[in-house]
Amino acid sequence: MLNHRLRPLLPGLLLCLAVAAAAEGLAAAEVRLFGQAWLEPLVLAILLGTALRTAWSPSSRWLPGIDFSGRVLLEVAVLLLGAAVSTATLAEVGPALVGAVAVLVVVAIAGSYGLCRLLGIAPRLALLVACGNSICGNSAIAAVAPVIGADSREVASSIAFTAVLGVAVVLLLPLAAGAFDMTALQYGTLAGLTVYAVPQVLAAAAPLGPVSIQVGTLVKLVRVLMLGPVVVAVSLAHGRRGGARPPLTRLVPWFIVGFVALMAANSAGLLPGPVAEGMTRLSGGLTVIAMAALGLGVDVRTVARAGARLSLAVTLSLAGLTAVGIALALTIGGAA
């Protein structure tokens, strides 16, 4: 039974492993040539995967393993990262930032939705884009779509932009750290405030080290926790239109529950040092493989097919969120 389930995953999984290995090799070559890796393996894996996907469309034989690597392995990596985080880090983030994140999500949804409608985007698609940009990308889109009765075209269009722009944010956001001379705490805050998906925070925050990754993940989790209240509010607003409420497991994913459990165990001293370190290293390795899968799922040509108005709406919405994120990171991150 187990072999029957694993066999379809092998081609895509091995492809992701090969791309991840190439990324690690290129990073090692950077160190030998320049004394440091200017592009981290996580970023290189995304770039290599995206380049391969844009030049070649994988057949159905490859897709199960790519999907498994980009979804399940990524979720496991986030879960294991909880072993590297403690409540002391959460205290360092501070309650002021937690409140600011909640306010930012509400303002970002309203602003993104208003911008989309101003540019003539249909209401349902505008709401999907707003929630995807402001909360957690594909997960938010998937949770909100059944509530508002969105059709497959609207869901596909919004997710396509999440995939492409999500990669762009991961690649470009580190430039803000140098431009604004951010500390690891400040940059981690910015990554958590702006990056679409929880796992992608690992890649975006990696250039400034473990503190940046831990803070970014915690801040991002606060954003993700806003998904529940937002979906409930949308559900109530559309209750008379026959929208279906998504299950609790979609609002609170299993890997977030696991992350919190490991964080609590680590804070209570229940995880021996070598165990926690091993989990952290495994999380990093799985993330590189998952980033390769993420790149393999992105065809940059999808942006050209989505339409100029939608492209402009999503890009401006994300730019506004990033600008506010930088301001909050510099203010609260510097005060923490």
From TrEMBL:
Predominant place of localization: membrane
Keyword Membrane among record annotations: yes
UniProt keyword terms in alphabetical order: Cell membrane, Membrane, Transmembrane, Transmembrane helix
Highest taxon of the lineage: Bacteria
Membrane topology recorded in Swiss-Prot or TrEMBL: Multi-pass membrane protein
A GO CC term attached to the entry: plasma membrane
TM region(s), chain numbering: 38-56, 68-90, 96-116, 125-149, 155-175, 187-209, 221-239, 251-272, 278-298, 310-332
One Pfam family this sequence matches: Cons_hypoth698
Subcellular location: Cell membrane
Annotated family: Belongs to the UPF0324 family.
The protein's name in its UniProt record: Conserved hypothetical integral membrane protein
Record lineage: Bacteria, Pseudomonadati, Pseudomonadota, Alphaproteobacteria, Rhodospirillales
